[in-house]
Amino acid sequence: MSGAAVVVDSPGRHRLVPYEPRPPEAGEALVRVHATGICGSDREVYQGNRPEGYVRYPLTPGHEWSGTVDTVGAGVPSSLVGRKVVGEGSRNCQVCDRCHAGETTLCTDGYEETGFTQPGAMASTLTLPSRLLHVLPEDADLTAAALLEPAACIAAAAIKARALPGERVAVVGTGTLGMLAVQFLKAGSPAELLVVGTRNDRETLSRQFGATDFRTWDQELPDDFDVVVETAGSASAARMATSLLRRGGRLVLTGIPAPGAEGLDPTDLVVRQLEVLTVFGAPPQAWSHTVRVFGAGLLDLLSLVTHELPLADFSEAIELVGSGDPKVGKVLLRP
């Protein structure tokens, strides 16, 4: 089952190389990759501005993926063979206090993640611990399922937000994460669902996914929402998100601003008794919840995909992701 893989040797330098799958060892599974999504962190890997300790070159990227189990190693149920799957990226230790609490993204053994420090899915196959797999329904669309990794991160945010039916909720940011957040929050039956973006080109899609209002930053904005989920990844977006909240409201931050960003105003947080929660990655609970929501047909993921390219077009795909072109949504690579 030979094929090809993208290898980023160092920032700005990559190759498409012949690829031989690594047979699964005990506790592992070998997955035939169907599609791999590209996000801003993959662009960081290629450009060389991912934080130190969070990437290891040379590297095959790819942390958003879907596929089908081909073979399994010793100790792994043979019933997994032939099943459609997605998989968690965090290669957690499973024995520290945080892992035992189910908070695997807080593993104290150090950072290891598929596609950043471990070989990723921009290849014909991916070999990984089978405990990281989440099995999909037999009729699952694997192209759509390639977006379940960012969806799981947003599921983690939705779980932390604890939005109740009838509450007023808002999403700041209109990228893939923002559009996923709209869908998760809509499923909770909010009284209002506001989306705030920097430009109008995502209004139609926002309303298609359930938004009741759409505004740009330069318009008059409310200040009485119960819950705000921030997905834009800038310090200014985080500060603006707090301004949308009522006293005692809940803010969930999912974006990671550039180093040196100015933070939130602690006086504002204390005086208005705001609750600030954060998400970095997705623990198993969020993954399993996402797969259930996906299986129930509550997520429209294909509407977010605008480009599907072969592995050989990796550099073009990276440029598309960073182009700022409103016509570019989620970009997928297909082996």
Report mean pLDDT, rounded to a whole number: 96
Tell me the structural class. alpha/beta
**Ends apart, CA distance between termini:** 12 Å
Percentage of β-strand residues: 25-35%
* Overall outline: globular
How do the SSEs run, as a string of H and E?
A: EEEHEEHEEHHEHEHEEHEHEHEHE
| Full CATH superfamily name of the largest domain | Medium-chain alcohol dehydrogenases, catalytic domain
Please work out how many helical segments DSSP would assign.
10
Q: How much helix, percentage-wise, in residues?
A: 10-25%
The CATH class of the largest domain is Alpha Beta
| Main sheet makeup | 7 strands, mixed
Known CATH architecture of the largest domain: Alpha-Beta Complex
Q: What is the CATH topology descriptor of the largest domain?
A: Quinone Oxidoreductase, Chain A, domain 1
Tell me the Rg in angstroms. Answer: 20 Å
Number of individual domains: 2
Q: Spans with pLDDT under 50 lasting ≥5 residues? A: none
Q: How many strand units?
A: 15
